[in-house]
Amino acid sequence: MDNNLPTRGQLERNLSQTIQKLYRQKLEHSPGKITCQLFGEQLAIVIEDALTAVEKTLIEAGQETDTVKQLNSTIGSIIESELKSVVETTLSVKVADVLFDTTLKTSRTGVIVTLDRTPEVRNPESIPKNNHSKQNNQSIVPQD
Q1: DSSP code of 126?
Q2: Backbone angles phi, psi at 30, to 5 degrees
């Protein structure tokens, strides 16, 4: 065990804070609560109150049409690219894939990030579905 490594919780909190900063810097918007959770080689991110003031204003004006959806999609594309860099830098792991979507009705953004490998943490047993250590100790037995 390397005591210099961060814990899973420290990585998740750091990532949440960095994403909050990203939204403030790129969109001049402070989203609500940001939750990050590692699941082995997967990272789930939920961003509350993710819609910008412009998006909310258009929705309130009854413009929840293709215009708002297109604006949201464009913003999402910009943030998704930046988010990938933030995740790679914070977790020191390459990102293999990103699924990114926002629900206009609830103003929530959900992100599922597939990582090349599970990030190194001081407490790897705390990462749900981290089967790496279990797989190394199990032999495969064929079933009849």
Answers
A1: G
A2: -105, 100
From CA 19, how far away is CA 79, in angstroms rounded?
A: 9
Q: What is the pLDDT of residues 11-50, one digit of tens each?
A: 999 999 999 999 999 999 999 999 999 999 999 999 999 9
Kindly list the distances between the CA atom of residue 10 and the CA atoms of 5, 48, 63, 107, 120, in Å, as whole numbers in the listed order: 10, 20, 40, 26, 12
Contact 121, 6 (CB under 8 A): yes
| Boundaries of every domain in the chain | 1-100
Select from 31, 11, 144, 136 the least CA-distant residue to 79: 31
Quote the tokens at residue 134. Answer: 């279990």
Q: Which two tokens stand for residue 64?
A: 């929840």
* Alpha carbon distance 55, 85 (integer Å): 25
